[in-house]
Write a structure and sequence with these properties.
- The radius of gyration is 18 Å and the shape is globular.
- With 216 residues, it is mainly α.
- Helix content is 66%, strand content 0%.
- It has two domains: 88 residues, no CATH class; 125 residues, no CATH class.
- The structure holds zinc ion.
- Zinc ion binds next to loops.
């Protein structure tokens, strides 16, 4: 029951988060209700059910039949799985997963995130787990990230998130997490079409890797 509740909450959260983040990248005033980017017609509530509506509509707008970007649907599925896995975890893991989802959505559409969100989420994580922080692993991970950040092989936001994870969960967990994320990253780079030199937003990859880590 808890897993179903977590999954439904995760799917709704992902749908809301991706929609709001996408809206923040659009110019001009935005309608209050959800709308189709192609015909700008409002989307009815029954066509806005996370995960299901995309399948029922076969990935097309009911009004103009334009294709809907599947990115939102992938995000909703990730939210569904993520929510069902995270719900039974300690508060620090739940907070970290929520924080990572906010940052990953921003990274996906903007290749950056607002520092205020990171520091707010980090503060809540640290309060949840203040008795068992791993200071030395965090210092090591931060030190190891300086050179890749300087040479633009790693975003400074990515480095902040990985350092926070080391502080909360220790070195071994973070190394396994990074190993999974690197594997996923390589697969995504090989699979994607178009310009492969375009930087890969790494935080969504880290979020999926967290999901894999929690499920094994
Ligand atoms: Zn439309």
């Amino acid at each position: 029951m808890m897993m179903i509740f977590g999954g439904l909450t995760g799917a709704c959260w992902a749908s809301f988060l991706l929609c709001q983040t996408w809206r923040s990248t659009q110019n001009g005033p935005q309608p209050a209700r959800s709308y189709c980017p192609a015909c700008r017609g409002p989307i009815a509530g029954y066509d806005n059910i996370p995960v299901l509506s995309f399948l029922i509509l076969r990935g097309r707008c009911r009004q103009c039949r334009a294709a809907i970007d599947p990115l939102g649907w992938y995000g909703e599925i990730a939210g569904l799985v993520d929510g069902s896995l995270v719900i039974r975890q300690p508060p620090s893991v739940i907070t970290f997963a929520v924080l990572l989802s906010i940052l990953a959505a921003s990274d996906l559409y903007r290749y950056s995130f607002t520092d205020g969100w990171f520091w707010l989420g980090a503060a809540v994580c640290l309060v949840c787990d203040w008795r068992s922080l791993h200071w030395l692993p965090a210092l090591l991970v931060f030190g190891a990230g300086i050179l890749p950040v300087r040479h633009h092989q790693l975003g400074d936001g990515d480095s902040e998130v990985i350092t926070l994870a080391a502080l909360l969960f220790g070195l071994i967990s973070v190394l396994v997490w990074l190993l999974i994320a690197s594997g996923l990253g390589i697969v995504l780079i090989l699979m994607r079409r178009g310009d492969r030199r375009q930087p890969l937003p790494f935080l969504p990859v880290l979020l999926v890797a967290l999901l894999v880590l929690l499920s094994i």
